UniProtKB/TrEMBL annotation:
Any GO MF annotation of the entry: GTP binding
Domain annotation AIG1-type G: ranges: 6-219
Record flagged with keyword Secreted: no
Family membership: Belongs to the TRAFAC class TrmE-Era-EngA-EngB-Septin-like GTPase superfamily. AIG1/Toc34/Toc159-like paraseptin GTPase family. IAN subfamily.
Pfam family for this entry, one: AIG1
Name of the protein in question: GTPase IMAP family member GIMD1
Domain of life: Eukaryota
Keyword list, A-Z: GTP-binding, Nucleotide-binding
InterPro entries listed in its UniProt record: G_AIG1, GIMA/IAN/Toc, P-loop_NTPase
Amino acid sequence: MADSNEMTINLVVLGKTQTGKSAAGNSLLGSADFESRLCPSSVTTCCSLGRSGRILGLMRRNGRESALRVRVLDTPSYPHSALSKEQVRATVRAALAQHFGEEGLHLALLVLRADLPLCPDESDDTVQLIQELLGPTWKDFTAILLTHADKAEEAGYSEETYLHSASSTLLSLLSSVQDKYIFLDNHNSIIKEERNIVLRKLLNFIQRNNYQVLKHRKE
């Protein structure tokens, strides 16, 4: 926050293969920085950082309009088709220290598919990785992105009815992160208005956490 009239938020996307993790990162940036395609194996094998331009019209500070910049760290999925858990963890931890070591991380976004049920084993694996990466306060710095929301909507679910029918595993996870969740239609989110709605929600989560950041030191 060197410029008092500009704010940068630092985000990392985490999740399983083919959840739409890289596509979600592109939606947040309003760009196509990250490779995203249908593939029988894990597409992302290393971490990469994407940066948005200045985004206006989302926030005001001290009575003046402030610009927002978004930085998103895309990561290899876990479980991964070619990398072990230890390799994924070491790769992500090193990238967090490299890119966000000074300014800190505002939010980790756990990407899940809204059109697939969340099973306990899947949840346990992913949450354990996040705990190892973020430490004991991980719940304060984690939000859930439910991608492919358009498919849930096509099946007749609103956000309210979807959550009413969701598995106890998903509901427990949402509760543990203080109900910080966003439904994301990866196609619509490229549209400026839809993207801004998502970014406003993320800013609200960050504000609720008093703009705190997590800092990762190089090992």
